[in-house]
Amino acid sequence: MTAPAARIAMVAGEASGDLLGSHLIEALRARAPDARFYGIGGPRMIGQGFDAWFPLEALAVRGYVEVLKHYRKISGIRKELKRRLLAAPPDVFIGVDAPDFNLALERTLKRRGVPTVHYAGPSIWAWRGRRIHGIGKSVSRILVLFPFEPALYEKEHIPVTYVGHPLADLLPLEDNRGEARELLGIPPEQPVFALLPGSRQSELRYMADTFAETAQLIHQKLPRALFLAPLATRETRLLFEEALYRCQARELPIRLLFGHAHEAMAAADAVLVASGTATLEAALLKRPMVIVYKMAPLSYRLMRRMGYLPYVGLPNILAGGFVVPEFIQDDATPEKLAQALLNFLDDPESRARIGRVFREIHLRLRQNTAEKAAGAVLALLPDEAREDAAATPA
Questions:
Q1: pTM of the model
Q2: Which of 42, 50, 83, 390 gives the lowest tally of CB atoms within 10 Å of its CB?
Q3: Residue 1, in any domain of the structure
Q4: In this structure, are residues 285 and 265 in contact, taking their beta carbons and an 8 Å threshold?
Q5: 143 and 118 within one domain
Q6: Is residue 215 domain-shared with residue 117, that is, in the same domain?
Q7: pLDDT tens per residue across span 147-183
């Protein structure tokens, strides 16, 4: 008798979760080719055969004020998703990041006997550390991306697996600036700055004008400079174009790209980037960067009270110190950002030091992540589904 195909429900809440989820689906499919994957995901997951019941963009909101504005819609999605998953329980549920949405859902499913995995531990090491107790009640196992995280969960007796970060497997260990410039048709000697104002529409609304004004100031001091702005969606591209229009910056030498963020960052001399996964991508590409973040003033005040670390950017957190500058909220003025970016061009020693630190981070995070994560998930499947997967060569 043929073993039943594994049913794996997943929820990803933003572009970085879509990337994590797509790599995991690919690794799981190699060992469980008949498995079904469904829930909430983005285009990368859908490209791996994922059945998206709701669009990922519906959950891509950050900040307390912003979440409150969309609370009714998000709550309705979670209620309907919970109803469907309880009516036909999956063999395992994987919450990919999005902890504020996923952990409550995971707790309900775990109580009903569904094994639950949370992929990418919430940043309890940076803020809201008390969440760890709720995590323990919600997950059968948590998969963490950074080497300092397992000790935090082991202390609370929460099953944890360090899997590294998939971007460290994906991105080259060596600097590929020349190759990226050739691909984009940019002369080797031209000054280039990459602008990454965020993947969410809410981020663009708070930061797009600041990015446009910063580029204007750099252009005034360095007219030969080229700006590359990779944007994730048509909606975020439109918001950035509107910011360029408002700031009278439409004549800037700027290329707006659909995607191609890795190529844009690799080709750049320095990167202006919104705090988030893109900062880690820039670090793995060995690029000097200036990290910036803005949100609703009330959200910022609430988050600042609950923070523990003096820095917010992943490269600085992983390095344990200020390797690259950060400018948050009111401190993030175009004047400060432009000067910080221009400073990198005049300081080759600083660029070389940053590159060495980022290479060490890259080596620590390169762990064959998708395979490790897939192994942890398969171990939670029912016996018959696990035996079917074990019979399929990886």
A1: 0.80
A2: 83
A3: no
A4: yes
A5: yes
A6: no
A7: 989 998 999 999 999 999 999 999 999 988 999 999 9
